[in-house]
Amino acid sequence: MQKWQCNEFPRDTPKRKVIKTFENLGFRIVRMGEHISMVRENPDGTKTPLTMPNHERIKGSTLRVICRQSGIKREEFLKAYEET
After folding, report:
1. Residue 6 placed within a domain
2. pLDDT tens for residues 25-67?
3. Which among 1, 22, 51, 72 has most CB atoms closer than 10 A?
4. How far is C-alpha 52 from the geometric centre of its chain's CA atoms?
5. H or E stretch covering 10
6. Is residue 3 part of a domain?
7. C-alpha distances out from residue 7 to 13, 32, 58, 73, Å
8. What is the Cα–Cα distance from 40 to 73, expressed in whole angstroms?
9. For the packed helices 74-83 and 15-24, what is the interaxial angle rounded to 10 degrees?
10. Are 25 and 70 in contact (CB under 8 A)?
């Protein structure tokens, strides 16, 4: 049984699953330190940056902020998350 409903962001998600989800959305890691920096190259030649804390578990509220700042729609993230 899942601990989260499909319309809400997962809570306390393992960092590895979050990274894999963003990789499935086209992002790649460019730097790791206190934060993890990722970037996605878009078809129009622009790049979309993404930064998240390098914690073992990522909070749902943090995921919402990361997605909003990176222009990722809620449904798009949740679909990729379920497929990961």
Report:
1. no
2. 999 999 999 999 999 999 999 999 999 999 999 999 999 999 9
3. 22
4. 8
5. none
6. no
7. 15, 30, 18, 12
8. 15
9. 110
10. no
Q: How confident is the model at residue 4 (pLDDT cuts 50, 70, 90)?
A: very low
Residue with tokens 């993404």: 50
Q: For residue 52, is it within any domain?
A: yes
- What is the average per-residue pLDDT within 13-25? 96
Total domain count, the chain: 1
Which tokens go with 82? 């379920």
Question: Quick one: pLDDT at residue 11?
Answer: 85
Q: Which two tokens stand for residue 52?
A: 């998240």
Residue 33, domain extent = 13-83
Both structure tokens of 8? 């809400």
CATH of the domain at 63: 3.30.920.30
Q: Which residue reads 């989800």 in tokens?
A: 21
Helix axes 74-83, 60-70, angle to 10 degrees: 120
| Residue found under tokens 């995921």 | 63
